[in-house]
Amino acid sequence: MAMEAEKYQIDLGNLMAYDPSHHFQPLPLSREELSKQCLEKGTELVQGVVNALFSLPSTEDLDGPIVRLPEPSMRLPREKHLPRPKPPTKWELFAKMKGIKNHKKDKRVFDEQTGTWKRRYGYDRVNDDRDVPIIEAKMTDEPGEDPFSKRKDEKKKRVDKQEKNRLQNLKQAFKAGDLPSHIQLAATALPITGTQKVIPKKASKEELEGVAGMAATATASGGKFDKKLPGEKPAKHTGKHRKFLPVVEGKGMGAQEKQQTEKILNKLMARSSHDILDVDRAVTMFNVKKEKQRKREKEVSVSSTSNKLKSKKKTFKRPSKKKQ
Amino acid sequence: MMKIKTPKTLKAKRALDKRAPKLVENAKKTLILHGTKTSYVLNAVLAQIFHLKKGLAVKFSRKNENIRPFESSGETSLEFFSLKTDCSFFVFGSHSKKRPNNLILGRMYDHHIYDLVEVGVENFKPIESFKYDKKIAPRQGSKPFFAFIGENFESVDELKHLKEVLLDHFRGEIVENLNLTGVDRAFVCTAISSTTVSFKHCAIRLKKSGTSIPRIELIEVGPSMDLVVRRHRLPNEAVKKQAMKAAPTQPRKIKNVSRDEVKGKIGKIYMPDQQVGGLALSNNIKGLKRERREGKTKDKRDDHDPSKKMRTEESQ
Asked: Residues annotated as region Disordered (chain A) (predicted)?
């Protein structure tokens, strides 16, 4: 079959066949011919794919034989990023640490007060605050307080706290980049993007101190003579400090100035020096070589003519001992 | 300011969940739109591409003057549309004197432009100009075969990119199980020269042959056009790396752990070979301790401590 002769690259997962070896050498003049050739070649390629496809194991179904396609060999890019792992919520972290496991709860609970089965949550629920007729007074209670409204307030506080915690968890998830898909952020300052790249960060204490210091020293006198507000600490000078040598050199340290200038000079000279090539040495070597060559040439011209055949330029290190 | 918006109805929640990033993704939708000026040919091209991709495409009919895909500022509108319609492919048509019948095929990653290929359409033949038996017409949504012919698809950079983009655009849904009776279309792309690709859409007719594998006959059906590659933009390397990251296929196999009914969970630990001969004897070889040294030199007949004696003997 023609398939064996030409090698196709078949990607069954994509139902694709590629023939890299086809050349349109004699370029057909008319479009019909070109089109016919394309179709012919195309038929061959598709036949190749179909052969491979029909040789896969198939299961019979109502509509017809169903084949399980392999993975496509040509990988194509994804549409959206891979789902990022959600950061665990505060409760999840706590539960993991304490080893608390989640137990499934029943929807119906027996209510002690009324002696009936009620829902755990919802319309007619267990332990509802409204169902409590009498609250007994405790020793710690103040006379003017209303315990019923106190209970209501407590519940409200609990609900608010829970809502705050939920929002905090969502903010953490947002920072990690994986907000649950059904939750959106009302964009007031956010760009409409899938990936959050620019998030206005809250300035940290160090950053604010740094900026305040910079602002304080940005005056004509360098911030030395400005009036300071009550409670303001002097600005920390975090810039470079210059080192000045002592005016009179003590006994222990000698030639500090010499050292300083030497250091600077070395740095300067190092730029113009070549690490790999030692210029002086190279020059002397070259001169020595040249001298030796001249010596040899003189000898050659003096010696017999048999040496004329040999090349005058000898590149051996040692002088050749073939002199007559 | 971060204000959290949650959907109030279940339907809205389901719609949002559908658009969320997943391990195994949905079929990508295509957005078809055009710029300020289009030609007769281009209008037909866009309409027929929409027809080919019915069900997974959205066609905009208005002209968009602020969309210029190859310019940095002209892409924001496209990205916004992509976000709103949840389309990761787009086909943008425009016509100008410099670039007649221009078609830009593009892909998006995370609703940002991933890569672009600009082609010019020549020798366009619409579906209506082909005569064929209506019974073999390919059905909507069937998975197509692809045939790419020509060495230029490998050697020329632009054509390589175009091949990938064409494959991605027209391959339809990614399925695991395929019904063999439902294969009825093929796309044949031939690299005529180093810049042009002839694109044909054909219907497949299966004929009886001696063996169980049928013989294929291709009948040209749909739009046929020559695509001349003009410009292209390859994806950014970092973005490409991220986009090509595949989801981990299977969880890692836990090795060397087994369960026994009697003992419970058993694990195997493999110890490396212990080279007894090569071990160092003791840590205190370097120089004897002072007491021992003195003891050694002073009195050899020190029988008070037998262990001490043994040590000195050993060190000799």
From this structure: 138-164, 221-260, 290-324
Cα A112 to Cα A126: distance, rounded to the nearest angstrom? 9
CB B179 within 8 A of CB A65: yes
0.80 exceeded by the pTM?
no
**Yes or no, beta carbons of B25 and A64 under 8 Å apart:** no
Q: How many Cβ pairs closer than 8 A exist between chain A and B?
A: 222
Distance from CA of A282 to the nearest CA of B (A): 47
Which of B14, B84, B87, B148 is the mutation pick for testing A, counting most A CBs within 10 A?
B148
The two three-digit tokens of residue B18, written as one number: 């559908």
Nearest by CB: B88 against A22, A46, A79: A79
- The two three-digit tokens of residue B273, written as one number: 């070979």
> Rounded CA gap, A196 and A190, in Å?
8
Q: Do residue A189 and residue B1 have CB atoms under 8 angstroms apart?
A: yes
Q: Are A23 and B151 in contact (CB under 8 A)?
A: yes
Tokens of residue A161, six digits: 């706290």
pLDDT value, residue B316: 47
Contact B77, B61 (CB under 8 A): no
Q: Give A229 or B183, the one with higher predicted confidence.
A: B183
Total residues found in chain B within this entry = 316
Region A20-48 average pLDDT: 81
The proportion of chain B whose per-residue pLDDT surpasses 90, expressed as a percent, equals: 52
Band of residue A5 on the pLDDT scale cut at 50, 70, 90? very low
Alpha carbon distance A14, A299 (integer Å): 82
Cβ–Cβ contact B7 with A under 8 A? yes
Taking an 8 Å cut-off on Cβ atoms, the answer to whether B23 and A82 are in contact is yes
CB A40 within 8 A of CB A21: no
Identify the pLDDT of residue B81: 95
For residue A319, pLDDT beyond 70: no
* b/e map B203-218, b = 16+ CB within 10 Å: bbbbeeeeeeebebbb
Residue B25 with chain A: CB contacts under 8 Å: 78-80
Record: contact A34-B216, CB cut-off 8 A: no
Q: How far is A137 from chain B (nearest CA, A)?
A: 42
Over residues A168-176, the mean pLDDT reads: 85
Residue whose structure tokens are 């046929």: B224
Alpha-carbon span A24 to A26, nearest angstrom? 6
Phi, psi angle pair for B32, to nearest 5°: -110, 120
CB burial class (10 A; 0-12, 13-18, 19+) of residue B157? exposed
pLDDT (tens digit, 9 = 90+) per residue, B15-40?
988 998 888 888 999 999 999 999 99
Residue B306 CB neighbours (<10 A): 9
Q: Give how far A18 is from chain B: nearest CA, Å.
A: 5
pLDDT at position A151 over 80: yes
